[in-house]
């Protein structure tokens, strides 16, 4: 059977059978026939690698350098709808000292320990002294199947020594900023996907320049990535027009800081003005280009010099006195 779009749709293996209980080997064979692919044979013995035990909770740890944080809200919901028959074992790494480091199932295992104090905990585990295995397990179990905050992916890839995440983290720190998950400190960046998009589009050097200037002109604010991307776009446009100098770019920040109440209001006010000015098509206009247009308007309003053309024309009302 050749592979096509229809073959790849979900299907009912029990169709046409007198019983809906289908042997898993039959299901596997049907899937391989539909995909036209034989899955790569395993080269190890799972029984030698994956093990199960009821574990003393006193030997179970969560390494928060390698794992996400506990989430109280899901744990409260789990408690309310708890059903022991559907409780799944946690997944862990067991080191040579007999300690277990939880890699998956933190939320429901935490609830389990609260509901059954002192009771042994069901764990599937792999024996290893390499903590990188915990990061690999975390990423494999969450990024491909259940959505996971990009920050935690970034954090684990930094720990495992991946080049780009570490280069981004170094640049961010050099600019007196920090990455984090749901933090609201001055200089903090929580929209990690935007950070990666910025590097992909404009490079690490430009990111460093913009973040440094951002911290100088709005030292008490967290980094709003829409504003950051707008300044990166302005820098790119100035360079393309051969109009970029340190002084000109400095003035872009200085006059924007005078024109807008805050870096946060900068992108929000520009967004609101585009809704008013272009009510039928503002959503189809690039966010970076819209923010860049507002920044360029603030510069032109202060200097009387439309140094380069706005990507989208906008005439911003004065937001502050």
Features:
single chain, 13 helices, 5-stranded mixed beta sheet, alpha/beta, 3 domains, Conserved hypothetical protein from pyrococcus furiosus pfu- 392566-001, ParB domain, 321 residues
Characterize the structure shown.
The protein is of the alpha/beta class. It folds into three domains: 6-35, no CATH class; 46-148, Conserved hypothetical protein from pyrococcus furiosus pfu- 392566-001, ParB domain, CATH 3.90.1530; 162-303, no CATH class. The chain is 48% helix and 9% strand. The protein is built from 13 helices and seven strands. The chain has a five-stranded mixed β-sheet. A two-stranded parallel sheet has the order 6-7. A hairpin with a 5-residue loop joins strand 3 and strand 4 (100-104). Helix 6 crosses helix 7, helix 8 (192-202) runs parallel beside helix 10 (225-240) and helix 11 packs across helix 13. The chain is elongated and about 80 Å long. 27% of the residues are buried.
